[in-house]
Amino acid sequence: MRSDANIAGPMTDPVPGPRTESPGEDVSRETPPPMDDTPIGRAAQLAVEALGRAGEGLPRPEQTRVMVVANQKGGVGKTTTTVNLAASLALHGGRVLVIDLDPQGNASTALGIDHHAEVPSIYDVLVDSKPLSDVVQPVPDVEGLFCAPATIDLAGAEIELVSLVARESRLERAIEAYEQPLDYILIDCPPSLGLLTVNALVAGAEVLIPIQCEYYALEGLGQLLRNVDLVRGHLNPKLHVSTILLTMYDGRTRLASQVADEVRSHFGGEVLRTSIPRSVRISEAPSYGQTVLTYDPGSSGALSYLEAAREIALRGVGVHYEAQHAHALPELSQHDQHSSMQEGIQ
């Protein structure tokens, strides 16, 4: 019986000897394929790295940290910051409760929590003295994350609270009566300085202020700080501004750097070294009922919120923070600028 190799002439096998594969076998398995350097491959690798870092865990506070996310200016990223920081802290191993005090209920939407009119909500806690444990729901996508939702009924709570006894401290009493162990409570405030925000300021010990890197960022901030001083002087002596987070930072513009420099010159150590970039992924995530951490964990927005949460957690226990993936201010690296630009045009 003749072999094709015997008549192939110049095409004969230059390496004689036994083969490990059959003639028709694909030899690609001998040499592993090169690392995927496509955009999808890089995004997947970033996502794996991000979730891996989140799983490392962070030191837990000795007692529950109640943080009020407030700024009466709308559109600065209060709700976005609340839900994404909460998800980041939970992914780092903490037990976190988000209290949605905004009648629009956007934080509830972003966490995938149903909040139609018939759902027990934070309104029932404030007005009808319902226990907080009766309205808290677990967030489906993130273990250790819980939410007290807001419904449209909360829009009338400002008026209804006026005639109630101890109207400024009703949320504080509800939190004190909540028996489940928690590491963090983040309260998402409405864009106003009414009774709902005052209830949050009385209930919390720390104020977290998101500041948009735009021209109008500092307008109205003085009034918020005066209200914090008033509440501290008359209702809550432990209240203080612990954290300021720069949001919607665009490294392509000089304005963002100027605003960042001005904020840092005014507030110094309260400003986180991590900033949150403008990101399409952050904006898209709530439409899917998710945080950016579960929607696209490898995006620049997700990585930045993970770093911000890490910085907040380490500050809380007095550990020095070393930035790993923070967006440096006032300048971004060329790679970060390119990533920001690519996300901006998607």
From TrEMBL:
The AAA domain, residue ranges: 65-240
Segments of this protein annotated with the region Disordered: 1-40
PANTHER family xref list: P-LOOP CONTAINING NUCLEOSIDE TRIPHOSPHATE HYDROLASE, PARA FAMILY PROTEIN CT_582
Coiled coil: none
Organism whose genome encodes this protein: Streptomyces javensis
CDD domains found in the cross-reference section: ParAB_family
SUPFAM superfamilies: P-loop containing nucleoside triphosphate hydrolases
Pfam family of the protein (one): AAA_31
Name of the protein: ParA family protein
